[in-house]
């Protein structure tokens, strides 16, 4: 049932209070809910809880919904991201009843009886019901697609009648590991039942479930991008070692400052530490260490070991309809750090989706049925080696005139040799690799001066590419598609650059390796 006019006015009128106390409300909500339903802890990243990312993400969704009660279509892109994440975690309608109960309780406890009137309670109760129905309805559609293997209806990823579709968790075995770069390893995962896997859209991810010994063998779930084009025999994920910000996590676990617990600029952090039960962020610091699952995979999962995966999900993929409509449409991939993983799947999928054409060497290159090769540019920024003489060396490895840098292992960025080989074989494929600490900025306690220096170097790299021979960024093409993935600092700066060059926002897609939807940070 829709909200009445009066209820809509009440909900919208509560937005200022939500902006002021939203993170406090969300933190209290999670504390109370997980204390009352400890079985739900598995659904939430412990580090995101400790650092305040999870409460901020919930606050962002609540504010967006309250501001768009009569324009819910504006929320579809954001909610699509949420629904895909929920389906990868196994969220079902009964979970929404639990969430609603504790969310309204947190509203009442933080705002107090003077502000949280019976009428406001009734208005928000109905508003939450509307939001829950929107989410659970879309999630039901996705689950049906997963079960029927219709999640990839496009012709280029056609239904495989022999594939074993599934919902829930499916056992997989690590078949092999491949070192891609310093601290990055690809895992080739084969289904235990040996049946063919459903195809997916390049750019999507899976949730992975493992038992974590340091969390008393409790299962933990994490999302990892699929880093290879769809294959019926196996899925591949690429995992980066996460050194984490242990000091910040330790401060959060002790109920420290709002800056440590809630992130820079987070509102309500200090108040939350006093209003929330002290056990909400207490306990062993190890339980809040960022990267606990990724590092476990790198240190303890070897060929023959078992993991469990969800069905592929996600709303970040190449616009196949647009590519079908224009075979010469340029595809520009911009990545930093582990952001190379989903773009690798896009790159390989796009390369194999077009037909044999004369290569630079005069021999046919691999592909399918098109008569023309699609222009593809991949630009990647990797972190410099810890042994590099310069802590801030943004260095072009493949771009003409670029400054050369070093890598932590053999001098290559992830997938670099493969991408460069394809670029040598195909006349319309360009590859450019740089070194910059912006590729690991999310893992650094960088000061403002260092951050600005790194972002300035990134801007210089992008500007040089804009004018480089062959115009690899295709900024003068009014229909080129751009896919961006990496650290938040990298994507925000790349988004600003493209906006300044008048690239239509509709032609740019971002994948944020973070909780929530920080898309509003990109200036467009």
TrEMBL record:
It is an enzyme of class 1 (oxidoreductase). It holds the Pfam family Globin. Residues 167-319 form the FAD-binding FR-type domain. It comes from the Eukaryota. Residues 441-468 form a coiled coil. Keywords: Coiled coil, Detoxification, Heme, Iron, Metal-binding, NAD. GO terms for biological process: cellular response to nitrosative stress; nitric oxide catabolic process; response to toxic substance. Its EC number is 1.14.12.17. Residues 382-415 are annotated as: Disordered. Residues 2-140 form the Globin domain. GO terms for molecular function: FAD binding; heme binding; metal ion binding; nitric oxide dioxygenase NAD(P)H activity; oxygen binding. Transmembrane segments: none annotated. Gene3D superfamilies: Globins, Nucleotide-binding domain of ferredoxin-NADP reductase (FNR) module, Translation factors. Residues 382-401 have a biased composition (Low complexity). In the C-terminal section; belongs to the flavoprotein pyridine nucleotide cytochrome reductase family. This is nitric oxide dioxygenase. It comes from Sodiomyces alkalinus (strain CBS 110278 / VKM F-3762 / F11).
């Amino acid at each position: 049932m829709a909200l009445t006019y009066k209820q809509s006015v009440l909900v919208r009128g509560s937005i200022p209070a939500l902006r002021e106390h939203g993170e406090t409300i969300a933190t209290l909500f999670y504390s109370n809910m997980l204390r009352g339903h400890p079985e739900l802890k598995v659904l939430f990243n412990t580090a995101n809880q400790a650092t305040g990312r999870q409460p901020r993400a919930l606050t962002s969704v609540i504010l967006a919904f309250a501001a768009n009660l009569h324009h819910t279509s504006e929320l579809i892109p954001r909610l699509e991201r949420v629904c895909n994440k929920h389906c990868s975690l196994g969220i079902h309608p009964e979970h929404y009843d639990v969430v609603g109960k504790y969310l309204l309780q947190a509203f009442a406890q933080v705002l107090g009886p003077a502000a949280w009137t019976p009428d406001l309670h009734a208005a928000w109760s109905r508003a939450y019901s509307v939001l829950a129905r929107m989410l659970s309805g879309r999630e039901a559609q996705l689950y049906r697609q997963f079960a029927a293997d219709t999640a990839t209806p496009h012709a280029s990823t056609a239904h495989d009648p022999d594939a074993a579709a599934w919902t829930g968790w499916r056992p997989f075995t690590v078949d092999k590991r491949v070192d891609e770069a310093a601290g990055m390893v690809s895992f080739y995962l084969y289904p235990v039942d040996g049946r063919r896997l459903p195809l997916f859209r390049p750019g999507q991810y899976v949730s992975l479930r493992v038992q974590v010994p340091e969390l008393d063998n409790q299962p933990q779930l994490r999302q990892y991008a699929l880093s290879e084009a769809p294959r019926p025999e196996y899925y591949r994920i690429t995992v980066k070692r996460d050194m984490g910000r242990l000091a910040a996590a330790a401060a959060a676990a002790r109920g420290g400052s709002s800056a440590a617990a809630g992130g820079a600029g987070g509102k309500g952090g200090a108040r939350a530490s006093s209003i929330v039960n002290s056990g909400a962020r207490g306990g062993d610091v190890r339980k809040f260490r960022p990267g606990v699952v990724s590092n476990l995979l790198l240190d303890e999962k070897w060929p023959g070991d078992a993991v469990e995966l969800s069905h592929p999900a996600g709303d970040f993929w190449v616009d196949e309809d647009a590519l079908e409509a224009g075979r010469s449409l340029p595809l520009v991939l911009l990545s930093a750090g582990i952001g190379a993983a989903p773009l690798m799947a896009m790159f390989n999928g796009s390369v194999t989706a077009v037909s044999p054409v004369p290569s630079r060497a005069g021999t046919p290159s691999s592909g399918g049925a098109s008569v023309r090769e699609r222009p593809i540019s991949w630009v990647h920024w990797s972190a410099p080696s810890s042994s590099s003489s310069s802590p801030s060396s943004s260095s072009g490895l493949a771009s003409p005139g670029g400054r050369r840098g070093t890598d932590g292992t053999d001098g290559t960025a992830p997938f670099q040799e493969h991408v460069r080989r394809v670029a040598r074989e195909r006349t319309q494929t360009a590859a450019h690799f740089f070194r910059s600490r912006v590729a690991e900025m999310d893992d650094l306690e960088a000061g403002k001066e260092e951050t600005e220096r790194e972002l300035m170097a990134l801007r210089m790299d992008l500007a040089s590419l804009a004018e480089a021979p062959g115009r690899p960024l295709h900024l003068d093409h009014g229909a080129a598609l751009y896919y961006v993935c990496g650290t938040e600092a990298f994507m925000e700066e790349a988004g600003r650059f493209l906006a300044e060059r008048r690239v239509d926002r509709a032609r740019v897609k971002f994948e944020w390796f973070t909780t929530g939807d920080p898309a509003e940070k990109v200036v467009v």
